[in-house]
Write a structure and sequence with these properties.
219 residues; binds 5-O-phosphono-beta-D-ribofuranosylamine; single chain; seven-stranded mixed beta sheet; alpha/beta
Length: 219
């Protein structure tokens, strides 16, 4: 990542109590569920305002509907290019007053339009201890590499793939007999803890980005 991709110096992260969230999903939506539960259970001062998927078959859409959260699909194939596609997403997010965009298993690289409209306001969860194992099948990559510890990371999104400043990480030991499935399941438990926590930090204005480092302000 170069500095021009990530102009995040000495700035507080925009926030507010009862932060409005826009969540982008492509599939199962278990992280979405963890966020919805944390919001509805009053554990974090935030609200899921809209769920958007690029895939009409994403189970996350049904999860949203069960909680009376607007669930919207924009399929990239219906747009002439990535910018036009992302502009539709931006319009929908703004319609619902989303203040923070959370990628939760969203299987597309975020482009310039989303980044421009939500500067320092897009975060992602990734199932490895970044910068190790970015991209697809991070748990498989960890097993193949033979690491003894892996985990998950919540980070700000920049123009790279899983490269933005790191907010919070959780380590998960790799067991000798782990398969991709068993390891993924243990990492997922941690994802469901740290993603709502990262959102809580932002909602409570606890984060300060200094270059690549994200610092937690004292209460
Ligand atoms: C999670 O492992 C997340 O870290 C990765 O994609 C997966 C999404 O799972 N980015 P879910 O859709 O939240 O259940």
């Amino acid at each position: 990542m170069t500095n021009d991709k990530c102009q995040m110096t000495n700035e507080s992260v925009p926030s507010g109590h009862n932060l409005n969230l826009g969540i982008l999903v492509s599939g199962r939506g278990s992280n979405l569920q963890a966020i919805i539960d944390a919001c509805e259970g009053g554990k974090i001062p935030a609200k899921v305002a809209v769920v958007i998927s690029n895939d009409p078959a994403a189970a996350g859409l049904e999860r949203a509907k069960k909680h009376n959260i607007p669930a919207v699909v924009f399929e990239p194939k219906n747009y002439k290019d990535k910018n036009t596609y992302e502009l539709e997403i931006v319009k929908e997010l703004k319609k619902h007053n989303a203040q923070l965009v959370c990628l939760a298993g969203y299987m597309r690289i975020v482009g310039a339009v989303l980044l421009e409209h939500f500067p320092r306001r897009i975060i992602n969860i990734h199932p490895s201890l970044l910068p190790s194992f970015p991209g697809l099948r991070a748990q498989r990559q960890a097993l193949d590499h033979g690491v003894t510890v892996t985990g998950c990371t919540v980070h700000f999104v920049d123009a790279g793939c899983d490269t933005g400043p790191i907010i919070i990480q959780s380590a998960v030991p790799v067991k000798e007999n782990d398969t991709e499935e068993t390891l993924s399941a243990r990492i997922l438990e941690q994802e469901h803890q740290i993603y709502p926590l990262a959102i809580e930090f932002i909602a409570k204005d606890r984060l300060k980005i200094e270059g690549r480092r994200v610092k937690l302000k004292k209460m």
